[in-house]
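The following block was generated as part of the benchmark described in Methods. Ligand: S-adenosylmethionine.
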Amino acid sequence: MSVKIIDSLTSKGINSAAVLDAIAKIPRESFVEPPFRHFDMCYGESPLPIGHNQTISSIYTVALMTQALALNKNLKVLEIGTGSGYQAAVLSLLCGSVFTIERIRDLSLKARNAVESLNMHNIIFIIGDGSIGYGEYAPYDRILITACSPDIPQPLFNQLSEGGIMVVPVEKNGAQNICVIEKKNGAMFSKDIAPANFVKLIGKNGYEAQKSQQRCDF
Ligand code: SAM
């Protein structure tokens, strides 16, 4: 990871030393497809394809959402949308444990391989519909949704601990925004922090699958 990338993230408002350090430590090349492994693409500004019509988010988007979660080593985090596993790997350096859910088995298995090859052991991979969360290990101190939701998913808010933070891209009037939600005395406080461009959250509390996206593996 070059100083140039860290400088670029800093200039865009990523000022958490812990987040920058985690980003610097995780080799993004391990999570992208071979044609995109050269530095400029891998660490560039655009999301990249990972197969099954899905994407790995840009490094800036990963840094921004991670910073918004205000993590520490005592926290239990739920991620919806494992994708390549890169975001889960970054989170895992900053919290106690990560539960990550993916609806496409092949992506989940590939992500698990990538993470295991880096000797990381505090990530639990789950295959299923993350739009309903994962009640078995709830509540979670932090929830990160890395696919765009049609609204703030109430079942996931219900699985958030008191004092917890959820970060989710939400579509409103045809535009996406990354929304940071806090739970205080059971009530929801939310603010938008940046425009976004995510693939859709498909599932019971997300969007309906289009024909091309109907395959799911649970
Ligand atoms: N966090 C990922 C990474 O680091 O590569 C990027 C995630 S990608 C933008 C969104 C992912 O969400 C896709 O892999 C997609 O299959 C997954 N997804 C969409 N709806 C889902 C659902 N209901 N449950 C679990 N995963 C879902």
